[in-house]
Design goal:
It is a single chain. It contains twelve helices and 18 strands. The protein is α/β, with parallel strands linked by helices. The protein folds into two domains: 312 residues, Zn peptidases (Aminopeptidase, 3-Layer(aba) Sandwich), CATH 3.40.630; 113 residues, Alpha-Beta Plaits (2-Layer Sandwich), CATH 3.30.70.360. The strands form five sheets. An eight-stranded mixed beta sheet has the order 1-2-6-3-7-16-8-14, with helices on both faces. A four-stranded antiparallel beta sheet has the order 11-12-10-13. A two-stranded antiparallel sheet has the order 4-5.
Length: 433
């Protein structure tokens, strides 16, 4: 272990109690996406305590502070997500809004703040060629359509945090991103290094338009929109055999409005759906088939399907463990680590996927928790593995990327082929929505 690594580990250990208190405080005051004002203020306060000057209010609530290294070089963003998930049954749910950190984002923020404390410690930043942007970002969890529409009226065009930050320039100047999360797929090791593939999704609202009539005396005069929706659901179910296993397609639906009065033929039925798949191509294919099934099932019964498509998240592009992650994990011999492998697939989705289409993402996940994500039984069971180790991993990984003229960061950037430029990303999202 070199002297800078020792300083990083000592700095995090020296701030252990501060970090645990921060994790606990954020965990007890979870806030929904784009409304994380208290959380953002606490992050900004700790970043100021590191001698940094955070920008605030990025994409509403984002906080970013840049630490300059001793020499010029690339900019690595250390990301932490600010939001909780609506989970009123969780014992730590915020009584004001029912939101809880049942996805462990308070652990990410603790890692971010811990990395800022460590990398700004005397003798550490000087060893970096480049800069580190500590970036607390809003709204990773899915923002419901109604909230999205209200936010759009207030100028939030893209309704997930990283996407809106890409649109508004928050990531301009950032060359690569460091992300972490509690384990998102089953993993026995304390650390899982690299990017496991994650499904992307697109969100749909289908309004089936029929014609009202007396349900008993004159059904022949009506067009039953609920029957159209049921036929569409059956058609979507029958499409299942056309989806390849490797594309991990999932289509889940609900009926938000199923008709007005029982003795009236349903005139308007509103169905919501999420279509998920492992690649942009598979997502496109599944979404087109879904649209086709709804359109023609409705036509078959004389109804009409109006399909509204909303922005979802893009798939995470898988990536093997970056050498900087391997070097960081080697400095933490008390923790077990394994690497992401081809074929590992997370069926859920995250807007880290959007980022991974535009810039290199260096990611690890960690343990220290029990219970299922997004559920009332999710809990941190080991504060060192959930809060302290990720802080050390983040700081050490940033150091290994940016030390020695940032050779590993540059190699990571050179080996990355973006699917989109920032401009073409914005155009693509606008076309979807
Ligand atoms: Zn989540
Ligand atoms: Zn999460």
């Amino acid at each position: 272990m070199d002297a800078v690594e020792q300083k990083i580990l000592a700095a995090v250990d020296a701030q252990r109690e501060t970090l645990l208190a921060f994790a606990q405080d954020i965990g007890a005051h979870a806030e929904p996406g784009f409304f994380e004002t208290r959380t953002a203020a606490r992050v900004a306060e700790l970043l100021r305590g590191c001698g940094l000057s955070p920008q605030t209010g990025l994409a509403r609530t984002g906080v970013k502070a840049v630490l300059q290294g001793g020499a010029p070089g690339p900019c690595a963003a250390v990301i932490g997500e600010l939001d909780g998930i609506l989970c009123p049954a969780h014992p730590a749910a915020n009584p004001e809004n029912g939101v809880a950190h049942a996805c462990g984002h308070n652990a990410q923020l603790t890692a971010l703040v811990g990395a800022a404390l460590a990398l700004s410690a005397p003798g550490v930043a000087e060893a970096l060629s480049g800069s580190v942007a500590f970036f607390a970002v809003p709204a990773e969890e899915y923002v419901p359509i109604g909230t999205r529409q209200a936010l759009q009226k207030q100028g939030v065009e893209f309704c997930c945090g990283k996407s809106e930050l890409l649109r508004t320039g928050g990531f301009d100047g950032v060359d690569l991103a460091l992300t972490t999360h509690v384990h998102m797929i089953p993993c026995e090791s304390d650390l899982l290094l690299g990017n496991v593939a994650c499904n992307g999704f697109t969100s749909k609202t289908v309004v089936f338009h029929g014609k009202a009539a007396h349900a008993a005396t004159a059904p022949h005069a009506g067009v039953n929109a609920l029957n159209a929706a049921v036929l569409a659901l059956n058609a979507v179910g029958l499409l299942r055999e056309t989806f390849r296993e490797c594309d991990t397609v999932r289509i889940h639906t609900n009926i938000r409005e199923g008709g007005a009065a029982l003795n009236v033929v349903p005139e308007t039925v509103v169905m919501e759906a999420m279509v998920r798949a492992a690649t942009l191509e598979a997502l496109d294919d599944a979404a087109r088939k879904f649209d086709r099934a709804c359109t023609h099932a409705a036509e078959a019964l004389g109804a009409h399907a109006e399909i509204l498509t909303y922005q979802g998240y893009m798939p995470v592009r898988p990536a093997p463990a970056n050498p900087a992650l391997l070097a960081a994990a080697a400095a933490l011999p008390g923790l077990s680590a394994q690497c992401a492998e081809p074929g590992m697939q997370n069926i859920a989705s995250t807007d880290v996927g959007d980022l991974s289409q535009v810039m290199p993402v260096v990611n690890f996940t960690h343990g220290g928790t029990a219970g299922a994500l997004h559920s009332a039984d999710f809990a941190v069971t080991d504060v060192d593995k959930a809060y302290i180790a990720p802080a050390k991993m983040m700081a050490l990984t940033a150091y290994h990327l940016l030390k020695d003229g940032a050779v590993l960061a540059r190699r990571t950037m050179d080996g990355f082929t973006p699917v989109f430029t920032r401009e073409s990303y914005i155009e693509t999202v606008r076309r979807q929505g």
